[in-house]
Structures are given as structure tokens and as C-alpha cells.
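Whiteboard transcription, Tuesday session. T.W. wrote the C-alpha cells on the left side:
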């Protein structure tokens, strides 16, 4: 039974439902494979998406409970329910285990009813990777960002496995470059906003702003190049979405270089109407090009 401040509202906030937006990557393979209206495959992907939302929330709770003391010293993270003490660490541990069990069970159901055991395997790998990330890997510069990129790549392959669609090599490289772009951008923002990097994230002490600025632009450029090559391979006039992607990447770069930005992708994406509108326009244009023309 919930006590006082540990209300359902705070528990939901600790689960970070806004961050579930990252899990839409699971739908990418089925959309680009022109199977969006295949009801059986779409149902499988929806189950995978729902299961992964529980798994990702379990990871957030585990990470926040483990880092509660350090997060309390962070200018932004200190307001999170666990770091601020609204939700106890013991409650967070319990909820993390419960959500992980529910999410893994959903992935196991795909194995039973759709024969897609790869979704379960990839999900377990994701959980193991994030436990290792929380315990040690996030303290290692560059490796920490590659762990984040691996998480996004696993989302793509979970979506591919759930829908029975092969993931293109160019699409894989696009996702890796784009996620590294966001991860290094977040590190840059954290470094600027944190008064004491050692108390908030150890890896920040081994980064410097010139390096982060350079690698952010490198990854942004690679993401655009890889995406452009993928559109040429994909056909269906998808090459005409490249200018819009350049705009979206440029807008994101502008947003993370604002004075008060701490580089968190979810905050950046939902904090700017123009950026949201351009992403929505890209989604509509993609569906029209793939399914109507």
C-alpha cells in the first residue's frame, strides 16, 4: 500500500514515461519494411514495445536508486522522486524488480505465441548491459556513450525480431551514429551544468568540452551521411526526407548549445515545439512516401 508522499503519481514519474518515447525505435523496422498494416506483426511489435517500456522503467528505477546520493547533488536530477527522498530506495528496488519481471514476461510471451525468442534474448542483454552500466561502465569515458548507443541498437533489433524484419546495415549505422550524437551531447550539457563533476558523474572528469564539441558534430554528420545512404538503398523516394533530417539535426544541435540546456534528449525533444513539429512532419512524410507513392 502506498504511503504519504509515495503516491502513484510519484511512482509513475519515477518510471519516466516521457522516456518511453525512445522506445518508438522498436517500430522503425516494421514501418520501413512496409508491414505497418500487417495486424499480426503489428500486434507482436506492440507487445514488444509495451514489454520494453516496463523493462526500461525498471532500469531507470534501478539506476536512480543506486545513484540516489549522487543525483541529490545534480542540478536537475536532484528533483527526481528517489533522489529527493519522496520514494524510498527500498520501494524503488522492489518496483524495479517487479517491472523487470513483467517486461521480461511480455517478451517471453512473444516466444510462446509468435516464436520470436530473439526479442527475449535482446531484452535480457539490454537488462544486463544496463546493470553493468549503472554499476561501473558509466564511469568510463566514451564507453559510457557507446553503452547508450548499444541500448538504442537493441531497440531496433527487438523491433526487427518482433516483426520478423531484417535490420538494414545502413539503418544500424544511422542509429548508432544518432544515439552517439545524443549521448555525447548530453555529456556536454552535464559538464557545463554541473558545478562539481566528480560528485555527479565520474566520467565527466575525464572529458573536456573541446573533445565533446568535436565528437558531437562528427556523430551528427555521420548520422546524416548514413541516413542518406540508407534512403538511397531503401528507395521509395525516401531521399527527399534527407533535407528534413538535416533540419532536425541542426535544430537539435542548436537546442543543446543553448545556455541553460543540460543536453537530455527527452527534455530537448519535448521542450521545443518547432522540433516536435518537424519530427511529426518527418513521420507523416515517411509514411506517405513509403505507403502512398
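and on the right, the sequence the group agreed on:
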Amino acid at each position: 500500500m502506498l504511503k504519504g508522499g509515495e503516491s502513484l503519481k510519484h511512482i509513475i514519474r519515477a518510471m519516466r514515461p516521457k522516456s518511453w518515447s525512445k522506445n518508438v525505435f522498436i517500430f522503425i523496422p516494421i514501418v520501413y519494411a512496409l508491414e505497418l498494416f500487417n495486424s499480426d506483426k503489428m500486434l507482436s511489435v506492440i507487445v514488444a514495445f509495451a514489454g520494453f517500456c516496463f523493462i526500461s522503467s525498471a532500469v531507470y528505477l534501478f539506476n536512480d536508486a543506486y545513484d540516489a546520493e549522487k543525483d541529490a547533488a545534480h542540478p536537475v536530477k536532484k528533483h527526481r522522486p528517489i533522489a529527493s527522498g519522496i520514494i524510498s530506495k527500498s520501494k524503488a528496488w522492489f518496483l524495479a524488480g517487479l517491472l523487470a519481471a513483467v517486461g521480461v514476461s511480455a517478451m517471453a510471451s512473444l516466444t510462446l505465441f509468435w516464436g520470436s525468442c530473439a526479442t527475449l534474448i535482446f531484452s535480457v542483454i539490454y537488462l544486463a548491459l544496463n546493470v553493468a552500466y549503472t554499476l561501473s561502465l558509466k564511469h568510463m569515458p566514451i564507453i559510457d556513450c557507446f553503452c547508450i548507443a548499444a541500448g538504442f541498437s537493441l531497440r531496433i533489433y527487438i523491433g526487427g525480431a518482433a516483426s520478423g524484419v531484417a535490420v538494414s546495415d545502413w539503418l544500424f549505422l544511422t542509429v548508432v551514429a544518432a544515439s552517439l550524437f545524443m549521448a555525447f551531447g548530453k555529456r556536454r550539457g552535464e559538464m557545463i551544468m554541473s558545478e562539481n563533476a566528480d560528485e555527479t558523474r565520474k566520467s565527466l572528469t575525464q572529458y573536456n568540452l573541446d573533445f565533446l564539441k568535436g565528437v558531437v558534430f562528427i556523430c551528427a554528420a555521420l548520422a546524416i551521411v548514413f541516413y542518406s545512404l540508407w534512403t538511397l538503398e531503401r528507395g521509395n523516394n525516401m531521399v527527399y526526407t534527407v533535407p528534413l533530417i538535416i533540419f532536425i539535426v541542426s535544430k537539435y544541435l542548436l537546442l543543446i548549445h543553448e545556455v541553460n540546456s543540460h543536453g537530455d534528449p527527452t527534455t530537448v525533444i519535448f521542450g521545443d515545439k518547432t522540433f516536435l513539429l518537424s519530427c511529426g512532419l518527418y513521420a507523416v512524410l515517411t509514411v506517405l512516401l513509403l505507403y502512398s507513392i
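Someone added at the bottom: The chain has a mean pLDDT of 87.
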